[in-house]
Specification:
alpha/beta; 2 domains; binds pyridoxal-5'-phosphate; Aspartate Aminotransferase, domain 2; 12 strands; 7-stranded mixed β-sheet; about 15% strand; 5-stranded mixed β-sheet
Length: about 475
């Protein structure tokens, strides 16, 4: 069949031209219609020809279907998307990712990734510098923040229970995270053989930060009952309130009890790039591992999540395994599969490097600063408007509020179902509120103003 064999260069060039056409259609549509019409799942097959069948699809119909699929997909990069902790596209990062797709390397070995290994190591080396980690540090990429948190827990487990890697876990391990920590910690505890019931959820203070007295108390109680506390997870930007845990103090507690100290910076760990905001990470340099997602605030296509460990020994201990059929040339240092969760691994470094190379560290700082500044602008707006009740605090990319006492669940769902805009809601202690997240580096003040105008007009008209 000519579609799948033959002159691949010309077939490829044809698809690249089609790609450009489709991408242009998407961008034009996104500007005119920043929110896609919601299509009920039951109607999808009637509205768009997504069914697969034995017969091939004729090219004209095929490209038309692709176009429809693109335009119907929720527009997570538009200026009216504030729903999850990612949004917008940095064009240079997109370029890097498109090139990674064309190259299609696996990052496991130097033999098949070559210069891409150099690029990944250069990104990791610079992240280590930003975090003021020692020269023993190293790092890698995984498919998202849940997975980099998982890697941290696995290293911690293997450090605490050395025989476990070979004989299975021998000790009663317990892990600690705040009630505001990401749900992946619990899930990962079950993947890691620790058990969800062995994760302690430490209460937070009024700002959403982990309560240190409660942390110490919980650890001491577990030791008294014969458990082995092995892992404490702190968060740099909690998922709902965007709070930063007190890292320096948590580091001391972790040291006192000989525990691994991980920082989940998936959301706003990128504060490391900004001289104005990196004080939010004070004490992070004492952590055993730190993870963060350029695919959130830095507009790098999903997935892009990095973990660095202060000592590469633990990455190697947990993730390396010999495999004669894979590692046939070069030293371990260059065969990145020796430090990774996967075997074949997508090249997630090139897109972040492509952005960083283009704008420099000062450009990354500008992206981060702009978003914290926009969040401060939005917080100011709700604080100074009596129609709003405010639940979030300074120095957070999440702005949490209710408008005229309308239940957040009702307001956000109605906005979504009416194709007005996408924003989610969250809970903290007994309150539920709209959570406006500022994570799109291409936003400007006028986009925030437009968000509030759209929300207010809709609420006043429809609710
Ligand atoms: C604090 C925190 N950690 C981890 C994650 C998970 O990241 P990912 O969606 O890349 O798995 C999130 C996602 O929003 C998060 O907010």
């Amino acid at each position: 069949m000519q579609k799948i064999s033959g002159e691949t260069d010309s077939l490829m060039l044809n698809e690249l031209e089609k790609f450009r056409e489709l991408a242009e259609n998407l961008l034009t549509d996104e500007a005119d219609n920043p929110v896609s019409e919601r299509i009920a799942y039951e109607e999808l097959h009637d509205r768009i020809d997504i069914a697969l069948s034995d017969a091939a699809t004729e090219d004209g119909a095929y490209y038309e279907t692709l176009n429809q699929v693109l335009l119907a997909t929720p527009k997570t990069s538009s200026k009216l998307f504030f729903n999850q902790l990612f949004g917008g596209r940095q064009p240079k990062a997109v370029l890097g990712d498109l090139l990674a797709v064309m190259l299609n390397n696996s990052m496991a070995t130097y033999k098949v990734a070559g210069v891409q290994v150099g690029i990944e190591k250069e990104v990791i080396r610079n992240v280590i510098g930003q975090l003021n980690f020692p020269t023993t540090a190293d790092g890698t990429f995984a498919a998202g923040g849940s997975m980099t948190n998982f890697m941290a827990m696995l290293m911690a487990r293997d450090k605490a229970d050395e025989g476990g890697r070979f004989g299975g876990i021998q000790q009663n391990l317990t892990a600690y995270t705040s009630v505001e920590g990401h749900y992946s910690i619990e899930k990962n505890a079950s993947f890691a053989g620790i058990g969800r019931d062995n994760v302690r959820h430490i209460p937070s203070d009024a700002m959403g930060r982990m309560n240190l007295t409660e942390l110490d108390k919980a650890i001491a109680a577990d030791i008294a009952s014969g458990k082995r506390p092995f892992f404490v997870n702190a968060t740099a930007g909690t998922t709902v309130l965007g709070a930063f845990d007190p890292f320096a103090e948590i580091a001391k507690i972790a040291k006192k009890y000989d525990m691994w100290f991980h920082i989940d910076g998936a959301y706003t760990g990128v504060a490391m790039f900004s001289d104005r905001r990196n004080t939010l990470l004070a004490g992070a340099e004492h952590s055993d591992s730190f993870s963060f997602n350029p695919h959130k605030m830095l507009g790098t296509p999903m997935a892009c999540s990095i973990i660095v460990a202060r000592d590469r020994k633990y990455l190697l201990d947990t993730f390396s395994n010999s495999a004669d059929y894979l590692y046939q040339t070069d030293q371990d240092e260059l065969n990145l599969g020796k430090m990774s969760l996967q075997c074949g691994r997508r090249n997630d470094a090139l897109k972040f490097w492509a952005l960083w190379k283009s704008v420099g560290t000062s450009g990354l700082a500008e992206i981060v600063d702009r978003q914290f500044d926009l969040a401060a602008f939005a917080l100011d707006y709700v604080k100074n408007n009596p129609d709003y009740t405010v639940f979030s605090h300074e120095d957070s990319a999440s702005v949490c509020f209710n408008y005229k006492g309308i239940p957040a669940n009702k307001l956000c769902t109605a906005l979504y179902e009416s194709n007005e805009l996408m924003v989610g809601f969250g809970q903290f202690k007994d309150d539920e509120f709209v959570r406006l997240v500022i994570v799109n580096g291409t936003m400007e003040k006028k986009d925030i103003v437009r968000f509030f105008a759209a929300l207010e007009n809709f609420a006043n008209k429809a609710l």
